[in-house]
Amino acid sequence: MLPTMSQNARETFLADRRVGVLSVADPREGDRAPLCVPVWYGYEPGGEILVQTGRETVKGRLLCAAGRFSLCVQDERRPYRYVSVEGPVVTVEDPVPPAVRDALAHRYLDPDEARGYLDATADQLKDDILFRLRPQRWRTADFSAFAADFTEPAHPAADSAEPPRPTEPTRPAEPVRPAEPAADSAD
Description:
- This protein is of the alpha+beta class.
- 23% of the residues lie in helices and 26% in strands.
- The chain has helices spanning 7-15, 58-66, 98-108, 111-120, 122-125, and strands spanning 20-24, 35-39, 49-54, 68-75, 81-93, 128-133, 137-142.
- Strands 1, 2, 3, 4, 5, 6 and 7 form a seven-stranded antiparallel sheet that branches.
- α3 packs across α4.
């Protein structure tokens, strides 16, 4: 069983600035896997998850049709941790409220970049809509609690009463000879 996070830890982790991977059912053309795409998102502990996207994008249309999605965020640095959350879309706001648009840009960009981004994309963003997801099911893992079980001490000789053993001298590697050309096969 994976080591899970407490409610407070998972909500704090999700609230940190990370890029999430959104997954939504994709019923187009028969047996398709869910659409999975990286997204900027907003979240405050205890609240809803906010995702902004274009009204006419594949992602936007699939979110409207499915009425629910999941979001996974991770910390790829050791010890690894992740939070995956899914739930229903409780609100679709069209267009995105300017304060939310501004907050999302400032969440992911420094102040000067955020201002430039908002100015440069002002026309594009009036075609965006905002989805609010209410977290319903959580999956988490936090491997930091037992990471020490899988790591070695930095200086094993310092932890041992036994002196380090001498190593055998190594001899130079033999030169690599080119392989014989393979005969053509009649298969």
